[in-house]
Amino acid sequence: MNVETVPATVFASPAELLSHVGTHLGPTAWIQINQERIHEFAEATGDREWIYLTLSLANLFLPDLIEVQDISMGVNVGLEKVRFPNPVKVGSRLRGRGEIIAAEQIGEGFQVVVRVTIEIEGQPKPACVADTVSRFFP
User: How far apart are CA 116 and CA 104, in angstroms?
Assistant: First the structure.
C-alpha cells in the first residue's frame, strides 16, 4: 500500500455516522488520467465533456473513502453541490479525499453527505468538489 493512502474509514453501522460529522476520509491512491481513459469514457457514455469524467470519479473514490457495515442496502441519492475549480489535463494524476459534512436519520435509514474533493497532483486547486448524498438501511 502507498504510504500516502489511507484505508477506507469503516463504520460498524449506519447509526454510527451520526456522531462522525466532521470526520476526514482518505486520501485514496492516485489514478492516472490518460487519453485512453478519456476516450473510453466518451465511447461508453456518448459524452465528450471532461467535466463529467471528473465527476464520475467521485463514485470511484467513495468506496475507498468510506465503508458502512451492517446494512441491508445502500443507495446513491445524488449530489447536493458540485464545483469544478480546475481543469484536468491529460497525464494528470488524481486522488480523492472526503469529509462527512452531514448525517441524519430519515425513517429507518441514515443519510450521509460526504464532500468528495478530487485533487490533482501538484496543483493547489482541486479538479472537483462534490457533495455526495447516500442513504444506508440497516
Answer: 18
Contacts of 127 (CB under 8 A, 6+ apart): 54, 84, 85, 86, 87, 88, 92, 94, 118, 119, 120
Is 2 part of any domain?
no
Grid cell, residue 24, equals: 476526514
1 has a pLDDT exceeding 50? no
Q: What proportion of the chain, given as a percentage, has pLDDT over 70?
A: 98
Residue 3 lies inside a defined structural domain of this protein? no
What confidence tens digit (pLDDT) does each residue in 20-29 have?
999 999 999 9
Dihedral of CA atoms 21, 75, 84, 121 in degrees, nearest 10, equals: 70
| CATH at 112 | 3.10.129.10
Nearest alpha-carbon partner for 61 in 107, 30, 85, 91: 30
- Please give the tally of structural domains in the chain: 1
Q: Is 28 within a domain? A: yes
Helices (H) and strands (E) in the chain, counts: 2, 8
* Residue numbers of the domain that contains 29: 9-137
pLDDT digits over 28-72, tens only?
999 999 999 999 999 999 987 778 999 999 999 999 999 999 999
